[in-house]
Please model this.
Amino acid sequence: MIVSAECPGYILDIFVSVGKEVDEDEQLMLLEGTDEARTQYFVHAPEAGKITKIFVEEGDFAQEDDDLIELTEFN
Model:
């Protein structure tokens, strides 16, 4: 499963690394939006699983729907 950006923003912090097991709704990263208030928002895991790939680095800019993290479901 690919976790994508819900809206454009800068990657401020990444809380996970490849191989980390996460719970459903766990915070994966923090983004800063491009709105006037520069609203910060968290990206959450849509389900429990294991991080298999991270497509971005801190400081990167992500467009809406850009791939952020690949998450493999537990079997």
Notes: The chain has a mean pLDDT of 95. The chain has one domain: 2-73. The radius of gyration is 12 Å. The CA atoms of residues 22 and 50 lie 6 Å apart.
